[in-house]
Amino acid sequence: MVWLKMPPRYTSSLRQTLPFLFLCFQILSLLIFMFLISSDYSYDQKYLQRYPEFQDINVMIILGFGFLFAFLKRFGFSAVGFSILLVAFGLQWAIILNAFLFGHKDGLRVISFTSLCTGLMSVLPALISFGAVLGKMNPVQLLMMTAFEMPVFTLNRYIMTKYLTIGDHISMMHAHIFGAYFGLSVSWLNSSPSQSTKANKEKENFETTSELFSMFGALFMWMFWPSYNSVLLQDLVQKSNAIYNTYFALAVSVVTVFSVSALVNQEGKLQMSHVRNGMLAGGVAVGYSAFMVQYPWITMTIGFLAGLTSSLSRTFFQRTLNKVSLVHDTCGVHYIFGLPGLLGGITYSLLIISADYNSIEILGYQAIVGIGCILLTLALSLVSGLITGFILKCKLFRPPSEHHFFQDQPFWEATLTR
Amino acid sequence: MVWLKMPPRYTSSLRQTLPFLFLCFQILSLLIFMFLISSDYSYDQKYLQRYPEFQDINVMIILGFGFLFAFLKRFGFSAVGFSILLVAFGLQWAIILNAFLFGHKDGLRVISFTSLCTGLMSVLPALISFGAVLGKMNPVQLLMMTAFEMPVFTLNRYIMTKYLTIGDHISMMHAHIFGAYFGLSVSWLNSSPSQSTKANKEKENFETTSELFSMFGALFMWMFWPSYNSVLLQDLVQKSNAIYNTYFALAVSVVTVFSVSALVNQEGKLQMSHVRNGMLAGGVAVGYSAFMVQYPWITMTIGFLAGLTSSLSRTFFQRTLNKVSLVHDTCGVHYIFGLPGLLGGITYSLLIISADYNSIEILGYQAIVGIGCILLTLALSLVSGLITGFILKCKLFRPPSEHHFFQDQPFWEATLTR
Amino acid sequence: MVWLKMPPRYTSSLRQTLPFLFLCFQILSLLIFMFLISSDYSYDQKYLQRYPEFQDINVMIILGFGFLFAFLKRFGFSAVGFSILLVAFGLQWAIILNAFLFGHKDGLRVISFTSLCTGLMSVLPALISFGAVLGKMNPVQLLMMTAFEMPVFTLNRYIMTKYLTIGDHISMMHAHIFGAYFGLSVSWLNSSPSQSTKANKEKENFETTSELFSMFGALFMWMFWPSYNSVLLQDLVQKSNAIYNTYFALAVSVVTVFSVSALVNQEGKLQMSHVRNGMLAGGVAVGYSAFMVQYPWITMTIGFLAGLTSSLSRTFFQRTLNKVSLVHDTCGVHYIFGLPGLLGGITYSLLIISADYNSIEILGYQAIVGIGCILLTLALSLVSGLITGFILKCKLFRPPSEHHFFQDQPFWEATLTR
Q1: A268, B16: Cβ pair inside 8 Å?
Q2: Rounded mean pLDDT, B312-316
Q3: Which residue, B212, B256, B252, B68, is CA-closest to B264?
Q4: Are the beta carbons of B259 and C26 separated by less than 8 Å?
Q5: Among the four A326, C352, C380, C384, which has the fewest Cβ within 10 Å?
Q6: Predicted ipTM?
Q7: pTM (2 d.p.)
Q8: Alpha carbons within 13 A on the beta-carbon side of A171
Q9: Which residues, 6 or more positions from B134, have their beta carbon under 8 angstroms from its beta carbon?
């Protein structure tokens, strides 16, 4: 238990930055709401009907991500605590940004109930990026990262909906790709090569309880993914299709991932981290096309491919990638969200082309737009991620030193009973 | 930690069977969906209204069962992991079976949104049976067990709805009885007498954390049981009655079980396993009649009797039954689902008879049909369970040897930090 | 592990009281339902529409409180187990009381689906009081406490709705204040000064797992608080406003609490207990006024103040208060529910006054009534709490001796593996 008894001078105290930064952010947000935002309190029946789905997404984002990230045995408090912090801050920030970019009405920036839902969903990329840098940043850095990531993601959505005439729903589905590659870029600049030392490897180990908490978070995400893939759709037919198709894709990716996990292990044993992460890949990949597919076998195939991609890439590339490019991806968001997201985006374009409609020209155009959106998202996320990562290296933010990685101890008061 | 260091040759590696079997199953299911099933994607408004209840059942079945079974301190990964596996596979299999038996429409086998809900609910018996053989079978055996159990359960429902003119809802309520007795039969043939050795007894012990996880699963089941008992009902009056009555029965069985648990203990102490299991008995027992009872005190009495039955039978018979008949019932599904299910079925028939309608003849007939359904379910589940149990003993499936019972270690890759 | 091996004569066995008391209560309740209560089984469409919110509150009350209280490392079984027990008993008792006071219709005491929801919400004060005496009472005392508290709370609501013409919703929002001060009064008489001995301090410590379980409960409460603050509202506009405003207040109080928690710690570290408790304060405080506020910045300010109040008062006053007044408040319900509740009540009155309506006289009257309701609730809760606390000290109930505080061991059968 040496790590608990280190003298406090080795830990970079956040007392001089954290409280004031957080308070400033909060008061700033309050002032913006007070002076620059109008709220539309007229009754919105559609919203109330959507309230159960909104709660599903709430559970998925807060409990799901918080506990999914709790697999590091000494980083549980931070995983859960910082997730709710990022959601609480990011939600306000996202609502403000959406009001400024999308909410113009009669010369005012208007928010309404729908803004709450959009805001909550916009927090997703920040949480995915948190997964990539998990255990390697302090809460001040995380808050700054969220503060930088949100405007770029909202801008990305603005460009897509405004100039590429993509719907609200599809633009939001790029959150997975955006969050994953933004997080990987930040992580690239903030995890030094020597970081995979033996001591840190040990701390990255899990224990049964933390793995069960993590599985518990993953199950919540798995269960409520159909709500996530359908809540923004206005058309009720599309909505129920999205629920139906997503469920099939999720089920298939579970079975696939179990199979691959046993196959790639020398003794034929399953790995909890494979199962936990791979089973979500189906939901990510099918997000783009779930609303329009008319045959369950197509979504099942997407789920199958997503499960394969996620678990095979994780097995064969994670170690190589970590070593070669020095990108350390703690939670493996590249394999949960990044690659399945790309797969989903490409499949979406292919499905549009293969649809046997008459107007093949329009479809071809749509398919190209689909690919364009992915490239735009990749470019914006990588560039803004690199810039953010560069800024966050600044000593001002007191980044935790390497031997404090993957630990709650620098951030949380703890009794020493354990 | 001797059990962690056993040489791998003692563990029956699943690498040669598990991945290929799972892949085969998944590809087969995909092909069936591709070539033999039509999907009705027309809009089904009723389904979308039922979506919150569907999600409740989703939570109940996936999180509820997964964590309810996580009480064995060294079997947590398997309990949670294999539950989601069985659901993901069983759901597809059940949808296929239901399409073949119930889904005929214009010469095609059609599935729709309702099939998703029915499919999910049909997985219940497989999970209950999993509870009876918990820790004594490998995932390949569990998958085969599910593959064998589903067709018989669907056939059982087909006979009941087609020839005994029982409604969809009531036919589904036999899942508890079917699952429990099927599981007990399988367990009878697959747990050898010497299995209750000291070493296994030790492994069957729990610890605080695993018990809390298990309680957590049980609470989810408790809370969402009203949704389970009402989701298939079409009539909105019956539906709200079912919710209302189920809630009362559940509340009463909690208080009853606490009382009995303290009464049967020498020092007046409560037992977590009593409370956890007994509190669900009320929901199981009232499932049959919740939609039609017109006085809360009747449902409360059913809940009271179910709580008594469950906790008293568990206390007095479990050990005796284990010794005499050599049936080892790890989770006690006989006391959670089996006996309360029988109680509920019998009460249902009695309530039909006692209803003061004019047409006493029809009611008498219905009551006889009710008893007939129970007997049919018992017969089919016991016989098919015995056959399945016999097949699963086959060396081909590499059943785990006795000293690997109740352990994650043969199936899951684990770091040795704990 | 000395505490596990104490001879049973030191533990006050509950075998002679607990089972019989619980059974009596249950049978009494059954008889009251049988002979004195009529049930309105006619179809209530509004109820079914509200079913998802009802389930949210169910989760919040059962899982939320149960696991929120599971932070004591040796009291997890009791926290979760006694919560569900209090809910299961309290619900029946509350429905009976509500039927007698509010349910008169055609000379009968009628209950309907709405009664289930009101009953469930009426259990809240009992659970809050449980938080104040957590670990210091046996289940018999807890049941008696609930039995005494419910009638006074229902009477309080009756006086408010009948004579002070306050709506159902606002009257229910006083549950926080009532529960907190009732619990503090009971705790004052039942926790002796010497109780903060070193041994008990040690037992009050937490460990990572129990804290995560507790955070998990708190997150469920956080997520579903908008449902709690809106479910009783009939007007759909008010309802959606309440959801919207509550969410903002909750988000702001999270960021505020993180900030204060780091500020008050010498090393700038966060404290899980601060975060866990403070983040709920926003929801409590905004409960009164969420339905009528028309600007999000007002609710955000309330959330900000509630977060400040909760975490600052906890930091500076808890130890002092414990020492001076000898009130030991295990879970800190005073800071989660008591003070934020008072803040919310006062803000509500201020907001009514500041509303720029024409009829300023009526508004002034309403504001005075608002203050009057708070004073009434305070008076009733303190007086009835003192009386209840005095009764519960009686030897008849075999209160646990001091060295058994904060332990599952006197109440739960446990294997000694840990």
Answers
A1: yes
A2: 83
A3: B256
A4: yes
A5: A326
A6: 0.91
A7: 0.92
A8: 19
A9: B69, B72, B75, B79, B330, B331, B406
